[in-house]
Amino acid sequence: MAVEIPFRRDFAFEYGRLEPVAPGIRRIVANNPGPFTFRGTGTYVIGEGKVAVIDPGPELVEHVDALLGALRGETITHILVTHTHRDHSPAAAAVKAATGAPTYGFGPHAGGRRGETAVEEGGDWDFTPDIVTRDGDEIVGSGWRFEAVHTPGHTSNHLCFALPDNAILFSGDHVMGWSTSVIAPPDGDMAAYMASLEKLLHRDDGVYWPTHGPAITDPKAHVRAFIAHRREREAGIIACLEAGVGRVDAMVERLYVGLNPNLHRAAGRSVLAHLIDLIGREVVKTDGTATIDATYRLADR
Ligand SMILES: [Zn+2]
Q1: Would the N or C end of the chain have less CB density within 10 A of its end CB?
Q2: DSSP 8-state class, residue 165
Q3: How many angstroms is it from 154 CA to the middle of ligand 1?
Q4: Residue 3: what pLDDT?
Q5: Rounded to whole angstroms, how far apart are CA atoms 293 and 112?
Q6: What is residue 4's DSSP assignment?
């Protein structure tokens, strides 16, 4: 039986308007809708007067202007970045230039390792945080206190930011209501992603605010559904291998029936992420490097 994920896609907002979404939390959505961004990047503003900004967004002048214009009379003191994809971090540079606020993040994209085959069009290779932020680090401002939660998987440098006094978690792209997360090797890592989902189950956050789409008000049920969904996908991949289907493109055709053709490539990367995880657990084998074009088989065959 297929796992049902309780997706949430009811999302009321107006582009370019900084709007209150919860006490002490405002959000402005960038006009960059797409198959990976839903309606666009949601930039959060926390506090009043002296505020923190989470995920300034893409390189989109109108978005930065709208954010800075809406905060006229207030001061941005902190710029927090969940991860270095081009829909999240590039605008940090413009916001920093305008305000002087330091940036907080785990580190440069993919640890700064820009390998030969590690070409990933979604990565922002220009971002380096002023303040390197690690799991458990506190970031304290005027009337608010964040705790960083390292959640690698979607990217190796992904951080969620918790407001422990409010039982709120800004979950970035790690857990979203509208969609599953893209796990694309080499920087995306399925084993790390699954561990980062489990990690959230040991926390007591009551509401998640993802960077794309609406809040998740029953977050543990959501996280459990994502774990079950990935286990189901993994079982499907093993069934493919048992049936002698050993290539990624053929697996995508069998496993993702009716998928939007624009998402085929992402689905292939996701299957590859599962295969790399299964190789790490010695369930699957391939000859040579685990790539999108390789042929895979079960280790016990
Ligand atoms: Zn992302």
Answers
A1: N
A2: T
A3: 7
A4: 85
A5: 25
A6: P
Q: How far apart are CA 283 and CA 115, in angstroms?
A: 27
3-state secondary structure of 221: helix
Q: Please state, in angstroms and as integers, the Cα–Cα distance from residue 89 to each residue in 63, 261, 289, following that order.
A: 13, 28, 31
Torsion of CA 59, 60, 64, 65, to 10 degrees: 150
**C-alpha–C-alpha distance, residues 276 and 205, integer Å:** 31
Q: Dump pLDDT digits (tens) for 128-177.
A: 999 999 999 999 999 999 999 999 999 999 999 999 999 999 999 999 99
The CA–CA distances, whole Å, from 28 to 21, 180, 290 equal 10, 22, 40
Give the Cα separation of 41 and 57 in Å (integer): 6
User: How far apart are the CA of 151 and the centre of ligand 1, in A?
Assistant: 12
For the stretch 101-126, pLDDT in tens is 999 999 999 998 876 444 455 899 99
Read off the pTM.
0.95
**Residue type at 122?**
G
Distance 120 CA to ligand 1 centre (A): 12
CA 180 to ligand 1 centroid distance, Å: 11
- Quick one: three-class SS letters along 76-124? EEEEECCCCECCCCCCHHHHHHHHCCCEEECCCHHHHCCCCCCCCCCEC
- DSSP secondary structure of 239-291: HHHHTT--BHHHHHHHHSTT--GGGHHHHHHHHHHHHHHHHHTTSEEESSS--
In single-letter form, the type of residue at position 82 comes to T
Could you write out the three-class secondary structure of 6-70? CCCCCCCCCCCCCEEEECCEEEEECCCCECCCECCCEEEEECCCEEEEECCCCCCHHHHHHHHHH
Per the CB < 8 A criterion, the answer to whether 188 and 153 are in contact is yes
Is residue 196 pLDDT above 70, yes or no? yes
| Cα–Cα distance, 151 to 251 (Å, whole number) | 28
Residue 88 C-alpha to ligand 1 middle, in angstroms? Answer: 7
Q: Are 133 and 105 in contact (CB under 8 A)?
A: yes
